[in-house]
Design brief:
binds calcium ion, mainly beta, 6% helix, disordered N terminus, eight-stranded mixed β-sheet, 3 helices, 36% strand, 429 residues, Neuraminidase, 2 domains, five-stranded antiparallel β-sheet, globular
Length: 429
């Protein structure tokens, strides 16, 4: 059934048939980060909200119209773009190649080709690959950068392992032999691999991991999200400048407790992109939902973001009368009438689009672009329309932020790492 839905997406027939599918099939939708479902999946009722005062539907904000300026094409699956300086960008694609662009043109030689270290990436639906890329805060002086990719594993019960590694640039390429493996995490399923990497202004590296995959966080008694003795379903905080691999900052919330000390926050399903607001230092994360609800969270030290007890502000397991006490609920959510898989972005801190200033820009993978703005103590959601949309069929894979705080959207026309056309666009007025 999953393949059938992928085909519908590819043929752009999914939206017209969506209502029919909903009415005919009591099955969860296939989406980025929720594939490989089985018939025993739990379906959370969208009507079960444990506490109406905690609803994340806070009204809507007036729409904003923007333009897109193409800054790169001739690529397929851009998941990460980082900016060594104002004239160069590194583009990491899901299939494992990082390219260096100077003044909008890719250099002929790949900056780094990780394919020899990775699992073979599927040609249709695929959640594994080169998922994370970030520059060291002192990249200009030490040339270090970090990647997160899916590597083969022979461990019992593993589909593959997620690998976090450091490499060193020589300016126009990076020697693959410069790899320093920092962390590996066995992944029981092919999906929900997280992979977002960001440095905080504390100098520590924050790493997002999905719940290990399958559906409904099915591994273990409580699922991985709520299990503090696994790194799966967490955001980690580690010091990659100390030790042969890394060390754990002494002020991490679970140091000295019966828990993995690397954990900064937990109860996540598949954080598909998080970012710090440069101005406020708030950490915004998009957590992909299971069957019904997509959510945005503000991640705080030691916070439990609910999965799999809750899907956004709704009971998931148990389906009714779950206990939300102690859980951090999202600041906003939307259901699967508006999209199927959230893609987190950035708070805009650039100068070219004043009306977007201080607003959190994000999207659904199927294309709709949104923003959040704080009004009193609520986060209201508004739509972003694109006046010069290049295609009606753009999957929003990810976002990027340059050194000036301007934002970019990373797209593909097919939603597959080896098919369709990829492109990177800068947002403009
Ligand atoms: Ca949650």
């Amino acid at each position: 059934m999953d393949d059938f839905l992928v085909v519908l997406y590819t043929l752009n027939l999914f939206k017209p048939m969506k209502k029919l599918i909903y009415s005919l099939l009591a099955i969860p939708l296939l989406c980025l980060s929720c594939s490989n479902r089985s018939s025993e999946d739990k379906s959370a009722s969208p009507d079960v909200n444990t506490d109406s005062s905690n609803t994340a539907n806070n009204g809507s904000a007036a729409a904003i119209s923007l333009k897109l300026i193409k800054v790169a094409d001739n690529i397929t699956s851009p998941l990460n773009v980082v900016f060594p300086d104002d004239k160069t960008m590194l583009v990491g694609e899901q299939h494992g190649v990082i390219s260096l662009f100077k003044d909008g043109q890719a250099l002929a030689e790949p900056f780094l080709d990780l394919r020899s270290k990775m699992v073979k990436i599927g040609t249709s639906y695929e959640e594994r690959g080169l998922l994370g890329l970030v520059l060291h805060p002192q990249f200009k002086s030490n040339n270090k950068f970090y990647v997160y990719y899916s590597a083969p594993s022979s461990a019992t019960g593993s589909d593959h392992k997620s690998v976090l590694s450091e490499f060193v640039s020589n300016g126009t390429t990076a020697d693959i032999k410069s790899e320093r493996i920092i962390l590996t995490v066995e992944e029981p399923e092919s999906n929900h691999n997280g992979g977002c990497l960001k440095f905080g202004n504390d100098g520590y590296l924050y790493v997002g991991l999905g719940d290990g995959g399958g559906a409904g966080d099915k591994h273990g008694n409580t699922g991985n999200g709520q299990n503090l003795n696994t790194l799966l379903g967490k955001i980690l905080r580690i010091d990659i400048d100390e030790g042969s691999t890394y060390t754990v900052p002494s002020d991490n919330p679970f140091v000295g407790k019966n828990a993995k000390p690397e954990i900064w926050a937990y109860g996540l399903r598949n954080p598909w992109r998080f970012s710090f607001d440069r101005k406020t230092n708030l950490l915004f994360a998009a957590d992909v939902g299971q069957n019904t609800w997509e959510e945005i969270d503000i991640i705080e030290k030691g916070g439990n973001y609910g999965w799999k007890i809750m899907e956004a502000t709704h009971c998931f397991d148990p389906e009714k009368n779950c206990n939300p006490s102690g859980l951090k609920l999202p600041i906003n959510e939307y259901n699967h009438s508006e999209g199927i898989s959230i893609t987190g972005g950035y708070v805009y801190n650039g100068t070219s689009i004043p009306e977007l200033s201080g607003k959190y820009l994000f999207a659904d993978w199927t294309g709709p672009l949104f923003f959040l703005q704080k009004s009193a103590d609520k986060w209201q959601r508004g739509n972003i329309s694109i006046s010069n949309k290049p295609s009606e069929n753009l999957k929003v894979l990810s976002f990027a932020e340059d050194n000036a705080g301007e934002l970019y959207v990373l797209t593909n026309t097919a939603g597959s790492p080896e098919r369709g056309t990829g492109a990177i666009y800068k947002f403009a007025k």
